[in-house]
Amino acid sequence: MSFPFKLPKRYVYEGPTLDGGQGSVYICRDKFLDRKVAIKVLTGVSDSAEIGKELSAIQSVRSRHIAQVYDFVTPDQGRTMGLVQEFVPGPNVNLYAKSNNLNAIYVRLLYQIACGISDIHNSGRIHRDIKPSNIKLDAEDVVKILDFGLAAHALPDPETTDARGTPCYIAPELYATPPIKYTPAVDVFAFGVMARVIAEGGAILPAFRQTPPYTTPFPSFASCPVALAPEVISALDSTISIDPKNRIAMSQVRDVLATRLLYGKHRAIVTYGTMHELSSPGKSINLKTGAAGVTIRYNGLQFLIESVFGDAYINNAVGRVGQSLPGSCVITLGPPSFGAARTFVPFNVSHPGVVL
Fold first, then answer.
1. Domain containing residue 75
2. Which of 10, 52, 116, 121 lies at a CB distance of 3.0 to 4.6 Å from 65, suitable for a disulfide?
3. For the segment 166-185, what is each residue's pLDDT rounded down to a tens digit?
């Protein structure tokens, strides 16, 4: 197979050609920059309009988890266009999950996908075709979201006349009587279904093959093969709610997953006489004087007040059992009447980031 029209001299078709839902993707080489690129070509009467729409959608999003657009190519005659994009070798997320220890990579994989979709939504776009085949990993195992052919503006209220997308990943509200109004929650639902498909090693459970009206409830992530923390289960269960108003935003999903990935990675420095470090989950530190005291425990996610007696203040507010300490604060021990004679303990927490 060859490229469907004459390419500019800088590009050489190398193959293979990959079939997509809205056209074909040709793997080529950019001779100027000596790198592989993927040139997506649509076929049909409205090629140029569709390519232009996809180009606009991609260019509006700034994210490391979106495949970049480098250029576009056109023949001397005709309306066909080719979108020159970053070549993402793969595999797609389903194959990646099958070839690795899923328990070890699952939350990290979902976190990257959630980051990408959240970036799309923050850019005022809705992807509308989130599914495993549209999400691949590059050579450094960084997630890249592909195929913006169905993307739409999130505002003003978008509507459609049909439930376009991929069966099993189409949100329930898209099966309503046209014209159908929808929100970014359609991507959240597709993400939730995909998250369960990945957890099942690529298998789609029968409940997700239904179309409305549903006779079988969607299964909770508590029953999936991957061991998950309660807060992660709760967030993922929310993504597959039938009512879009009950679905959690992708930015919230991202933050829940990030918090779990940072478990046990925080480090608190407490200056109390000498400098002390609190960084091991389950460990605590006792700060006390004759008149007051507080015990702070690190649970792997937060630094919490485990017990308190007397006059103990956090940034001049009374300390309470169960209270989460802010990242930087001063713990004051002793009644206000002691004035400068009270004990002041600086408490500072590092802010680790998720390393992909």
1. 11-86
2. 116
3. 999 999 999 999 999 999 99
